[in-house]
C-alpha cells in the first residue's frame, strides 16, 4: 500500500515488496555526540523494489523524520535510490556476510541486506521480522534488476517505451548527439574549420572501419575513404586518429586514436595521414611546422586497472561504519589517501591535459593523443583539454555536448565500466575483444578532474559541484539510453533490432536515418534529465558566480551556427578588472602576492594572462590537487552539516545573483524611461538619502548605549530567506547599487553584508525551543567548527541543535535575523523582512515602520 | 559599495614579493604625508644625505615610504628565484626593506623583490671566495615567513661583506641599540588605530558594571603592582573586593589571576583566563584563590559547575609541579570540573612549523605532499586548538556554565583558546573592528610576548622562546572562515595582511611584550597602529 502511493516514473512497476523491514541507520552525528557510539537506530517500514529503483517507506511519520535524507537520491526522489546506482548487494546470514550475485540460491534465514551504492553509501535493512517469502522475493528482485542479464532488460527501455508518445516530434531543439553528419558539421563550423583541411567521412557508416567509433569520422581532407581502412588497421582496435577539436584562430588540431598496433612494429602509423594531420591549419597563419606532438596516455596516466584499484582504495577510506572507525581513519587519512593512488591519477590527467592545451594554444603545435584501446583515459584527457581551451564547453549545454562527443560518440564502454549488466549483451556481442572488460570509474575520474578545475577557477563553469554529482548518478541510473551502451554501434544495432521486433508497435514509421532511429528507441538524456530533479535542485545545478563573472553575456546557442569568437575577443568575456579572481582557485579570492602564497598554491607562472584569453591552465602540483570531499565524504554523517551549510551558502548566492540581475534590468528600464528628467531624479534620490540618514541617526540615538553595544546574538550564520530586495522600488542611480560587483572578494563581502546583521542595534532573540526565561541565545549563534584539519577534518559544522538546524534552514519557522538591517544596500533600497518571528514582531514593526 | 572596493585593494604597503604588488605600491607616492612641516624638514635633510647614495640609483628606485631612508645600493647582483630562475639586477637596502629590481630585457619581464627587513630571521654567507661554479658565492637570507632568499655576488668585487654587514645592522636594530623602523615611519592616516580598543568600552559592551550584572571593572592593577604583564583595567566578579584580588593573585604564577575575557550577555556565563596555580610539590592551597574561583562560579546563576580547562597535556601540567606550579587540586575546589586540552607547548609548535616550512618551500614533493603534511602534525595541532576552543564555546553555549582557561603562564595557549572561543560565540568579533579588538584585548593587552615570540629586530635567531603561536591562531581563524564562508566580515587577505605586518615592524601594534613595557617604549605615541592602516583602507 505504501509503495502504491509513491510517485513512479512512466513505465515503472513495483516488482516486490517487503513489509516490516527495518532500515538500520548505522550512526548519525547526533548519536555520536550523545556518546552512544556505534549503536544505530532502526526505522521500520516497507522496502519495495521497482524495475527502476528501490524505495523505503517508513510506517510512521516519526520514522520519516528520523530517516531524513538517509535513503535518497536527488535523481529518483526521496527515499528512493535507482538500482543502477547499486554497486553490490550483500546478505547477512547467521552473522556472516555474503555477496549476492546473479543466480545464487538464497538461504532460508537471511537476517540483513546490505546495499553498497556507487556514491559510497552503505544502507542496511533488517528483514528478520518480514514475512519469509517477501524477504526472498525482494532479494531476488533487487539482484535481478540491479544487474540484468541483457541490455534490453534495463529500465531505460521501459521508460522510453512509456514516454514515447510525449517525445517532442521535432528534434531540432535537442542537444547534439554526434551520431549524424549534421552535428559534426556544426561543430566544424563553430570552430571555423576550413573545408580544405578536414572533411566528414561517412565510410564508417556500417562500422566496418572501426566498430567502436561513431558512424561519421572527421579526417584530413586529402585522405581518401579507401585508405582509411588501411590507416585504421595500423592502430589498436582499429581506432584511427580522428579529429576532436581545432583552435579557432590557427586551426591547429587535437586528434585522438589507438596506439600503433604492436603486431607490425616495422610499420609506423601511415606517414601521409599523420602528415596531413600535422599540416592542417587555417590559411593566413604561417606557423612554423613543429610536427605533431604525440602524447601516450597509457604511459603517463596509467590504465583502467590502476584506476580500478585506486578507486577501491579510496572506497575503503570513505566508508567508515562508526564514529570510532572514522576517528581511526581520520588519524591517518592524508597518508592513506595519498597511498590510495587516486589523487596521482587525477593529477596526471590534469597535467597531461594541460600539456595538450599548452601545445595547442601556446606553441601552436598539433597534438595526437594515443592510448592502447583509445576508449578510456583518452576520453578523460581529450575532454579535459577541450574544457581548458574552449569556454563554450564550460556552459551546461556545451559540457553535455562535450560528453556526448568525446565519450558517447567515441565509444567509451559505459556499460562495461559501470557494470550495468552481468554479461556481454547477447543481442550483439561486442567484437572488440582486446579491450579489458573491467569495471572502472573512468567517468568519475573525469568528473573529479573537472571539479578540480572548478575549484581553481570558481567562476569559469556554468555548472556546480552538485551538477557533477548528479551527472555521476545519471550515468549509472540507466534511465536514458545515453549511458547504457558500449559504443554507438551497439546502440544503433539494438535500435534497429527492436524496431523489427515490434518494440514500438506498428504505428512507428520507418526512421530515415540511424540517428532518428536512436532517438526513437531511447531518449537521449541531455534535453530532459534534469526534469527529474526538483526545482530547487535544478537551480542548484548552476554556479551563480558564472553569471556574474563568467561568460554569461556571450552565451552560445547551439542552433545557430555562429562561429566561436576569435580568441583575442575573449578578453572582454572575462572581466579583466578582477585579476584577483584568476589564480589558484578559491585562494584567488585574495591577493596572492603575500609571502605566504607558497603555503597555499604553487601559484606562479602566467596563468592570469591566459585566463583572460579563455584558456585555463590549472596548477597541478601536489598541494593544489585536493581530495573531492563532496564525492568521497558525501555520505559520512559527520560531514552532513558541512554540506548542508555549503548548499545554504550557494542558494544564497543564487538569490543574490537573481536580485542583482533584477536590479540591473530595473535600472536599465528606469534609465530608459527617465531619460530627460535624470537631474530631477538625482535630487529626489538625494532627498531620500538625506531623510534616511536622519532616520538612521534618530534610531541609533534612541537606543541606550549599552544596548547598542551588546553582542548581536541574533546574527544568523545560517541565512534565512528574509531579505528580499524589491527591484521595482529601486530609486537610485546606478553608481550606488551593487550592480558593479567586480571581484569575487567583493561579492563575498556583499554576501557577508547580507548574511550578518551587522550594524544592527537589535535585541536578543529567544531561542527556538523557549529555554528558561528566554535565556539561551538563538540557534546559529555559536560557531562550532569541527576540530578539523583541512582535508578530512571533522569539518562538521554544527549549528547548535538539530531542531534549530532544521528550523533555520530553508523554510524556517525561526525568526529571521533581527530587523534593522543596515547593509549597504539598505540606504538605497527597500528591504523587506519576511518571517519576522513573534518575538521580533514588536521590534521589527517598530523599525520597519520608520523605513521609507 | 565604496568601502568594499577599497578593501580589495587593501595592502598598499604590504610586504609582498611580486612585481605586481610592488608596482601597485609605487603609485601612491611617498609624499603622501608631505603636508606636515617637521616631516618635510626632515625629509630635506634626508635628501641631502642621500644624494650621494642615490646618485647611482635609477630614478624612482626604490619607492620609499614616508620616513624611509635608503642606505645601501649594490649593482650586478643575482637573485636566485627558486621558481623563475636567476635574475640579475640592483639591490637597495633602506631602513625598512630590501628591494631588488631586475630590469626587463628580451628574455624576461621586469622583476621586483620586496622584503621588509623585519621578516629576516638570519643571514648566512654561502660559498667561499674561492668557490667554483656559477652563483655559488653570496648570501642566503632566511625569513620568518617561510621563504629563503639566495643572492649571488661576483667573487672578484667582494661586494658580499658590505651587504652582509649592512643587513645585520638594519635587520636587527634592537641588537644594535636602535629602534625598529616603526619609530621612523611617518605616514599619516585618517583614522587612529590606537583608539580601536578601549578596555572600559569593551567591558561595558559586555555589560560589565551594569545593573544586575555580577561583574565589575577593577583598576587595582593601575600601577602594574599586582601583575606586571596584565593590563591596568580588569573585569572581575563584583563580589570580590580589591584587597582580596591582590591576595588571590599571589597564588597564581606571575600574579596572572583569573580575569574576565568574555561574558555571555544573557546567562552571564563567563570565560576567564589565568596562569597556573602555584601548587608545587608541597601541594599548597590558597583560601583566597579557592574563594575567588567560587565567586566566579556564583556569578553565573545557571552554571552548577565551573569548568577549569587546562590547555596543557596532563603530563606537562604534572611536570610543572616540580617547578612550583601545577594544576588545581581536585579536593580544594568543589563544584569544579577539571580537564586537560592536550595542546603542546611553544617548542612543539615551533618544531612543527619548521617541518612544514621544509616541505613547502621552495619545492613541494607532489608524490608525498599529503603524507609529509601529515607528518609535520601542524594540522593536528590546529585541530587540537580548534577542538579545545569548541569545547569552551560549547560549555558556555549549551551548558550555560562558566569556563576558566589557563596553561602555564596564560599568555600563549590560553590566548588562543579564549580568542577563538570568543570568535565562535560573539558575532561582533567576526567583524573587522571586532577582530581588531580581539587581537588587542586577548593578545596584546593580556601580555602575549610578541617581541619575544617573534624576535623583532633581534639577531639571536635560535632563541628557543620564539614560537609561531599567533600564526597558529590566525590559521585557526582561517579554518573557521573556510567552514563558515559568510560569517566573517574579513577575508583571507585581511588575515594575511595582519601576518605580514606581524613581522614587518612597520607598525607598532606587535612591538613589546606587555602593556607595561609598551608604555615604557611609548609605542602608542611614537608609532602607527596597524589598525590605522587597515581601517583607513576599509572605510
TrEMBL record, chain A:
GO CC term, one of those recorded? cytoplasm
Which InterPro entries does the UniProt record give? Myotubularin, Myotubularin-like_Pase_dom, PH-like_dom_sf, Prot-tyrosine_phosphatase-like
Which parts of this chain are annotated as the region Disordered?
758-852
What Pfam family is a match, any one? Myotub-related
Question: Which GO BP terms, alphabetically?
Answer: phosphatidylinositol dephosphorylation
According to the entry, every stretch annotated as the Myotubularin phosphatase domain falls at 178-632
Q: Which domain of life is it from?
A: Eukaryota
Q: Which residues form a coiled coil?
A: none
UniProt family annotation: Belongs to the protein-tyrosine phosphatase family. Non-receptor class myotubularin subfamily.
The name this protein carries in UniProt is Myotubularin-related protein 10-A
Instruction: Say which species the protein is native to.
Output: Geodia barretti (Barrett's horny sponge)
From TrEMBL, chain B:
Compartments reported by the entry:
Cytoplasm; Endomembrane system
For the keyword Amino-acid biosynthesis, the answer is no
- A GO term (biological process) for this protein? phosphatidylinositol dephosphorylation
Q: Where is the Myotubularin phosphatase domain?
A: 193-539
One of the record's GO cellular component terms:
cytoplasm
UniProt source species:
Geodia barretti
Annotated keywords: Cytoplasm, Hydrolase, Lipid metabolism, Membrane
* Catalytic residues (UniProt): 407
Alphabetically, the GO molecular function entries are:
phosphatidylinositol-3,5-bisphosphate 3-phosphatase activity; phosphatidylinositol-3-phosphate phosphatase activity
Membrane topology per the record?
Peripheral membrane protein
The residues forming a coiled coil are none
Protein name in UniProt: phosphatidylinositol-3,5-bisphosphate 3-phosphatase
Task: Quote the record's binding site residues for substrate.
Answer: 345-346, 407-413
Q: Which InterPro entries match?
A: GRAM, Myotubularin, Myotubularin-like_Pase_dom, PH-like_dom_sf, Prot-tyrosine_phosphatase-like, Tyr_Pase_AS, Tyr_Pase_cat
Documented EC number(s): 3.1.3.95
**Stretch list, region Disordered:** 1-47
Similarity field: Belongs to the protein-tyrosine phosphatase family. Non-receptor class myotubularin subfamily.
Q: Does the keyword Membrane apply?
A: yes
Amino acid at each position: 500500500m505504501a509503495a502504491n502511493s509513491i510517485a513512479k516514473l512512466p513505465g515503472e512497476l513495483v516488482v516486490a515488496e517487503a513489509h516490516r523491514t527495518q532500515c538500520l541507520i548505522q550512526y548519525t552525528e547526533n548519536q555520536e555526540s550523545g556518546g552512544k557510539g556505534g549503536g544505530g537506530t532502526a526505522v521500520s517500514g516497507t522496502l519495495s523494489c521497482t524495475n527502476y529503483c528501490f524505495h523505503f517507506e517508513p510506517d510512521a511519520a516519526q520514522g520519516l523524520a528520523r530517516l531524513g535524507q538517509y535513503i535518497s537520491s536527488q535523481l529518483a526522489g526521496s527515499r528512493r535510490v535507482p538500482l543502477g546506482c547499486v554497486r553490490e548487494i550483500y546478505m547477512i546470514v547467521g552473522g556472516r556476510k555474503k555477496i549476492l550475485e546473479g543466480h545464487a540460491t538464497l538461504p532460508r534465514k537471511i537476517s540483513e541486506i546490505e546495499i553498497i551504492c556507487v556514491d559510497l553509501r552503505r544502507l542496511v535493512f533488517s528483514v528478520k521480522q518480514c514475512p519469509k517469502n517477501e524477504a526472498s522475493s525482494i532479494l531476488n528482485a533487487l539482484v535481478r534488476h540491479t544487474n540484468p542479464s541483457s541490455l534490453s532488460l534495463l529500465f531505460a527501455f521501459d521508460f522510453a517505451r512509456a514516454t514515447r508518445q510525449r517525445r517532442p516530434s521535432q528534434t531540432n531543439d535537442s542537444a547534439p548527439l554526434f551520431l549524424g553528419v549534421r552535428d559534426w558539421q556544426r561543430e566544424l563550423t563553430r570552430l571555423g574549420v576550413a573545408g580544405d583541411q578536414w572533411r566528414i567521412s561517412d565510410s564508417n557508416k556500417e562500422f566496418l572501419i572501426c566498430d567502436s567509433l561513431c558512424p561519421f569520422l572527421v579526417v584530413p581532407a586529402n585522405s581518401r575513404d579507401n585508405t582509411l581502412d588501411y590507416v585504421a588497421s595500423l592502430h589498436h582496435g582499429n581506432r584511427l586518429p580522428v579529429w576532436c577539436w581545432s583552435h579557432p584562430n590557427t586551426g591547429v588540431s587535437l586528434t585522438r586514436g589507438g596506439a600503433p598496433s604492436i603486431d607490425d612494429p616495422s610499420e609506423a602509423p601511415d606517414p601521409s595521414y599523420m602528415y596531413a594531420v600535422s599540416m592542417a591549419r587555417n590559411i593566413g597563419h604561417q606557423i612554423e611546422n613543429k610536427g605533431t606532438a604525440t602524447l601516450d596516455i597509457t604511459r603517463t596516466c596509467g590504465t583502467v586497472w590502476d584506476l580500478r584499484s585506486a578507486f577501491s582504495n579510496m572506497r575503503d577510506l570513505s566508508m567508515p561504519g562508526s564514529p570510532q572507525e572514522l576517528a581511526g581513519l581520520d588519524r591517518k587519512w592524508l597518508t592513506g589517501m595519498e597511498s590510495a593512488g587516486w589523487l596521482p591519477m587525477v593529477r596526471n590527467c590534469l597535467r597531461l591535459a594541460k600539456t595538450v592545451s599548452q601545445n595547442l594554444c601556446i606553441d601552436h603545435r598539433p597534438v595526437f593523443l594515443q592510448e592502447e584501446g583509445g576508449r578510456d583515459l583518452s576520453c578523460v584527457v581529450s575532454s579535459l583539454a577541450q574544457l581548458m581551451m574552449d569556454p563554450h564547453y564550460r556552459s551546461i549545454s556545451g559540457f553535455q555536448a562535450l560528453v556526448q562527443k568525446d565519450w558517447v560518440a567515441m565509444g567509451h564502454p559505459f556499460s562495461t565500466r559501470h557494470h550495468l549488466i552481468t554479461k556481454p549483451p547477447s543481442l550483439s556481442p561486442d567484437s572488440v575483444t582486446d579491450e579489458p572488460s573491467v569495471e572502472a570509474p573512468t567517468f568519475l575520474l573525469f568528473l573529479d578532474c573537472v571539479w578540480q578545475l572548478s575549484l581553481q577557477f570558481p567562476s569559469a563553469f556554468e555548472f556546480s559541484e552538485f551538477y557533477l554529482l548528479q551527472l555521476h548518478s545519471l550515468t549509472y541510473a540507466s534511465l536514458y539510453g545515453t549511458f547504457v551502451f558500449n559504443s554507438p554501434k551497439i546502440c544503433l544495432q539494438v535500435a534497429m533490432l527492436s524496431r523489427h521486433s515490434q518494440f514500438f508497435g506498428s504505428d512507428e514509421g520507418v526512421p530515415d536515418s540511424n540517428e532518428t532511429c536512436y532517438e526513437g528507441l531511447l531518449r537521449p538524456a541531455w534535453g530532459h534529465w534534469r526534469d527529474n530533479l526538483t526545482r530547487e535542485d535544478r537551480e542548484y545545478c548552476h554556479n551563480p558566480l558564472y553569471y556574474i563573472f563568467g561568460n554569461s553575456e556571450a552565451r552560445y546557442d547551439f542552433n545557430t551556427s555562429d562561429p566561436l569568437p576569435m580568441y583575442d575577443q575573449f578578453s572582454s568575456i572575462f572581466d579583466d578588472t578582477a585579476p584577483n579572481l584568476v589564480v589558484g582557485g578559491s585562494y584567488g579570492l585574495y591577493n596572492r602576492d603575500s609571502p605566504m602564497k607558497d603555503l597555499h598554491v604553487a601559484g606562479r607562472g602566467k596563468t592570469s594572462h591566459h585566463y583572460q584569453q579563455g584558456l585555463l591552465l590549472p596548477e597541478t602540483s601536489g598541494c593544489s590537487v585536493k581530495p573531492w570531499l563532496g564525492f568521497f565524504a558525501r555520505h559520512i554523517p559527520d560531514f552532513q552539516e558541512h554540506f548542508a551549510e555549503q548548499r545554504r551558502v550557494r542558494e544564497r548566492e543564487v538569490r543574490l545573483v537573481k536580485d542583482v540581475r533584477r536590479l540591473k534590468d530595473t535600472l536599465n528600464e528606469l534609465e530608459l524611461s527617465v531619460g530627460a528628467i535624470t537631474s530631477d531624479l538625482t535630487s529626489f534620490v538625494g532627498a531620500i538619502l538625506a531623510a534616511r540618514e536622519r532616520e538612521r541617526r534618530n534610531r541609533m540615538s534612541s537606543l541606550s548605549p549599552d544596548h547598542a553595544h551588546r553582542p548581536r546574538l541574533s546574527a544568523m550564520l545560517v541565512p534565512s530567506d528574509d531579505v528580499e530586495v524589491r527591484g521595482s522600488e529601486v530609486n537610485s542611480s546606478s553608481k550606488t547599487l551593487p550592480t558593479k560587483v567586480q571581484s569575487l572578494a567583493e561579492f563575498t563581502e556583499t554576501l557577508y553584508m547580507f548574511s550578518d546583521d551587522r550594524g544592527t542595534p537589535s535585541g536578543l532573540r529567544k531561542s527556538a525551543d523557549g529555554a528558561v526565561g528566554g535565556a539561551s541565545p538563538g540557534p546559529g549563534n555559536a560557531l562550532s567548527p569541527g576540530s578539523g584539519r583541512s582535508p578530512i577534518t571533522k569539518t562538521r559544522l554544527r549549528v547548535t541543535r538539530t531542531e534549530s538546524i532544521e528550523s533555520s534552514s530553508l523554510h524556517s519557522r525561526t525568526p529571521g535575523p533581527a530587523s534593522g538591517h543596515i547593509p549597504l544596500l539598505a540606504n538605497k533600497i527597500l528591504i523587506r523582512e519576511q518571517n519576522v518571528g513573534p518575538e521580533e514582531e514588536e521590534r521589527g514593526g517598530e523599525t520597519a515602520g520608520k523605513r521609507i | 559599495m565604496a568601502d568594499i572596493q577599497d578593501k580589495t585593494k587593501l595592502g598598499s604597503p604590504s610586504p609582498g614579493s611580486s612585481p605586481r604588488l610592488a608596482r601597485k605600491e609605487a603609485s601612491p607616492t611617498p609624499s603622501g604625508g608631505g603636508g606636515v612641516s617637521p616631516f618635510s624638514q626632515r625629509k630635506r635633510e634626508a635628501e641631502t644625505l642621500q644624494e650621494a647614495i642615490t646618485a647611482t640609483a635609477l630614478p624612482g628606485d626604490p619607492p620609499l615610504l614616508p620616513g624611509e631612508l635608503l642606505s645601501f645600493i649594490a649593482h650586478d647582483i643575482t637573485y636566485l628565484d627558486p621558481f623563475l630562475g636567476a635574475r640579475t639586477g640592483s639591490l637597495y637596502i633602506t631602513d625598512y626593506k630590501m628591494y631588488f629590481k631586475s630590469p626587463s630585457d628580451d628574455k624576461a619581464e621586469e622583476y621586483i623583490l620586496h622584503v621588509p627587513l623585519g621578516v629576516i630571521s638570519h643571514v648566512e654567507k654561502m660559498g667561499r671566495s674561492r668557490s667554483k661554479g656559477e652563483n655559488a658565492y653570496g648570501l642566503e637570507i632566511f625569513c620568518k615567513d617561510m621563504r629563503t632568499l639566495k643572492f649571488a655576488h661576483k667573487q672578484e668585487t667582494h661586494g658580499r661583506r658590505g651587504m652582509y654587514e649592512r643587513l645585520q645592522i638594519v635587520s636587527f636594530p634592537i641588537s644594535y641599540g636602535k629602534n625598529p623602523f616603526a619609530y621612523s615611519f611617518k605616514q599619516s592616516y585618517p583614522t587612529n588605530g590606537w583608539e580601536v580598543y578601549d578596555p572600559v568600552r569593551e567591558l561595558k559592551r559586555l555589560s560589565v558594571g551594569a545593573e544586575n550584572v555580577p561583574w565589575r571593572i577593577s583598576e587595582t592593577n593601575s600601577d602594574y603592582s599586582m601583575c606586571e604583564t596584565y593590563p591596568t583595567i580588569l573585569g572581575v566578579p563584583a563580589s570580590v573586593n580589591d584587597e582580596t584580588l591582590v591576595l588571590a593573585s599571589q597564588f597564581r604564577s606571575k600574579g596572572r589571576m583569573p580575569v574576565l575575557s568574555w561574558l555571555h550577555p544573557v546567562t552571564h556565563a563567563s570565560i576567564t583566563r589565568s596562569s597556573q596555580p602555584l601548587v608545587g610539590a608541597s601541594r599548597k592551597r590558597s583560601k583566597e584563590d579557592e574563594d575567588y574561583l567560587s565567586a566566579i562560579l556564583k556569578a553565573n546563576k545557571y552554571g552548577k559547575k565551573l569548568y577549569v580547562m587546562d590547555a596543557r597535556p596532563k603530563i606537562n601540567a604534572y611536570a610543572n609541579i616540580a617547578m612550583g606550579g601545577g594544576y588545581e587540586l581536585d579536593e580544594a575546589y568543589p563544584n569544579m570540573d577539571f580537564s586537560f586540552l592536550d595542546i603542546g607547548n611553544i617548542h612543539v609548535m615551533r618544531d612543527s612549523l619548521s617541518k612544514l616550512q621544509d616541505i613547502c618551500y621552495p619545492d613541494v614533493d607532489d608524490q608525498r605532499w599529503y603524507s609529509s603534511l601529515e607528518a609535520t602534525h601542524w594540522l593536528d595541532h590546529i585541530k587540537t586548538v580548534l577542538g579545545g576552543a569548541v569545547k569552551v564555546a560549547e560549555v558556555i553555549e549549551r551548558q550555560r556554565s562558566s569556563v576558566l582557561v589557563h596553561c602555564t603562564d596564560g599568555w600563549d595557549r590560553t590566548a588562543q583558546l579564549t580568542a577563538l572561543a570568543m570568535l565562535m560565540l560573539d558575532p561582533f568579533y567576526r567583524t573587522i573592528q571586532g577582530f581588531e579588538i580581539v587581537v588587542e584585548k586577548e593578545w596584546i593587552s593580556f601580555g602575549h610576548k610578541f617581541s619575544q615570540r617573534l624576535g623583532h629586530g633581534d639577531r639571536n635567531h635560535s632563541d628557543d622562546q620564539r614560537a609561531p603561536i599567533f600564526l597558529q591562531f590566525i590559521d585557526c581563524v582561517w579554518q573557521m572562515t573556510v567552514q563558515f564562508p559568510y560569517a566573517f566580515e574579513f577575508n583571507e587577505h585581511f588575515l594575511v595582511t595582519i601576518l605580514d605586518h606581524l613581522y614587518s615592524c612597520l607598525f607598532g601594534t606587535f612591538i613589546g611584550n606587555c602593556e607595561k613595557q609598551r608604555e615604557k617604549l611609548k609605542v602608542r605615541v611614537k608609532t602607527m597602529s596597524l589598525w590605522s592602516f587597515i581601517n583607513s583602507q576599509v572605510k
